[in-house]
Structures are given as structure tokens and as C-alpha cells.
Design a protein that fits this description.
alpha+beta; three-stranded antiparallel sheet; 4 helices; 7 strands; globular
Length: about 140
């Protein structure tokens, strides 16, 4: 990812005294089972979070920073009040990344304003889609007994 001009520019926008970690996912070219529409031999990258000096930026600040520097981010599937029913609804289905034709892995659920929870720590969780979880066991009998 550092070879991408946007990623490099974003990281270079901070001083050497700042500890910056840009979190993201590399995909395509046999990195994982889903290629997200990238041709064979080509890698893709999408950022999903950033921390500066150990503090995570709020979502809107992260998105603005990526937009300014031309860093692609993971798709926003839903923005609104927390609802487990809504999370389950949007977790399954086709990926929303253009050019890809496969299922969605799931969704990451996080607040717009960073916070921690006494039970889980940082309030960010991933809800894995049923279709994706079952696809990992496609050679096994997954029917109810």
C-alpha cells in the first residue's frame, strides 16, 4: 500500500514525531478467496481506520483525510442509529465494490465518534455474513441435525 501515491502522501502529511498507523486490506492477486474485481496479477487496497499517536480518528475525520489524499476506503454500507436487525439485514448480499461479483464478507460496526466499552475495549466489531461463513465450509454438511 505504501507504493500507492495517496497512501504515501497521507502518511507523509504527518511529522516524523507522530506515530501514524493506516489500517487497510490488501486484496486481489490470490491474497484471499475474494478478488473484489481486481484482475489477476493486480492488487487492490482499501483503508478502514487510522490511528495517530495511539488515538483513533473519528470516522468523519478519517474519511476526510482519505478523500483529501485520494486513498480509497472500504464501502460505507449503512450509517444511522445502531440496530442489530439492520446489521443482520445489510451483512449479507453482494459486495458493493464495483467490478466484483461475489458475496459480502460482512460488515464492520463502529460508532461515528470513537469510544471504548468496558467489556470489549474499543467499540468496533465485525459481523460476519451468514453466506460468507457458510462458504468457508462449503465442503462440509452444514444442514441442521
Amino acid at each position: 500500500p505504501l507504493s500507492l501515491p495517496g497512501v504515501n502522501n497521507l502518511l507523509q502529511s504527518y511529522t516524523s514525531n507522530e506515530a501514524v498507523i493506516l489500517y487497510g486490506e490488501v486484496f486481489g492477486r490470490s491474497v484471499q478467496s475474494l478478488d473484489y474485481g481486481f484482475a489477476k496479477g493486480k492488487l487492490g487496497y482499501r483503508a478502514f481506520d487510522i490511528s495517530v499517536n495511539g488515538k483513533y480518528l473519528n470516522y468523519d475525520d478519517f474519511k476526510h483525510l482519505c478523500d483529501v489524499h485520494g486513498v480509497e476506503i472500504v464501502p460505507l454500507i449503512y450509517r444511522g442509529p445502531y440496530s442489530m436487525a439492520k446489521i443482520k439485514e445489510v451483512a449479507d448480499g453482494k459486495t458493493t465494490i464495483g467490478g466484483a461479483d461475489h458475496i459480502r464478507e460482512g460488515v464492520v460496526v463502529k460508532p461515528l465518534i470513537e469510544r471504548t466499552d468496558p467489556k470489549v475495549g474499543r467499540a468496533v466489531l465485525k459481523y460476519i455474513s451468514t453466506e460468507y461463513e457458510l462458504s468457508k465450509h462449503k465442503d462440509q454438511d452444514t444442514t441442521d441435525v
